[in-house]
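Appendix B, example 12.
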Amino acid sequence: MYIESIELSNYRNYSNVKVEFGKNTNILYGDNAQGKTNILESIYMAATTKSHRKNTQDKDIIKIGEDESHIRLFVNKKDISHKIDMHLRKSKNKGVAIDGIPIRRATELYGLLNVIFFSPEDLTIIKNGPAERRRFMDLELCQISRLYYQNLASYNRILNQRNNLLKQIYHNRSLIDTLDVWNMQLVDYGSRIIKERRNFIDMMNEIIGEIHSHLTSGKEKLEIVYECNVDEDKFDETLQEKTEMDIRYSSTQSGPHRDDISFLINGIDARKYGSQGQQRTVALSLKMAEIKLVKRIINDNPILLLDDVMSELDTSRRDALIEEIKDIQTIITCTGYDDFVKEQVIINNVYRVVEGTATRVRTEEA
């Protein structure tokens, strides 16, 4: 699997741009705030219908002064070229077509293009709050499981409806009898999410230990622990027990929306007691394990998007990551590419990005 090219129209700071990619390493370089990350974001959008940036709406992506934006991406999968068209509009839902045929649901897109996004912000996932770690699980699980995406969307919708009902019950206790209907649905979808997350963490643990041991020269043993807020078998019981608390706070206090994961280095919680260097190594191990897991599940290589992350890694960590990406298509943003020329990777294309333009300055097909 690899991306052949992407074309953008009125996307953030781009009026019109086309970027072609080779099967190996492709570099987008330039000063900060020129639009390098926007190209990576558009690829992620084409794969998932969502931005990698938190709380980003379609209207935020459309170029200032314009009413709509377009993404056209060509991906080669098993020697067959596919086209993904995405139409973003300020006042309407986005439109998506695969090979010219419109799709109705985002789940129809998932699986056609698997991408892994790695940015400097990911290096802080260990020490940030639980929401960041839940988001990590959800973003990856949605790409590898259409059913998970459907269950998560249903769960979040029902959670919002239940929370709205709790606010009403706070002022009108006669509505409390209607809560059971929402409890039943919340437990149903929530239990499915918990099971999928637990399975995901189990699969990650099968991979990440060896990776982290290699990065630390065998000095550290890493284990991911799924901190489930409520066991699926006791979800309904817990909701019943905490009904009064939920009404008092007008929000649901129990469920997978409050899950977390911890990272144990030699049995010690890296979130609380790990040094900055240890936390960054755990984050790198996490991304490298993610790459291997996706390979195993889809029986193909995902596309790796590295957003100015190389400059954040020391030599040993950077070398370990480069070794991992040799056989997969990687699109890298950076302020300069001289260092990458010296590395043992095949560089296909180099683009210089300046104020919403991308000019190819080097091509070296493998």
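The chain has eleven helices and 15 strands. The longest strand covers residues 2-11.
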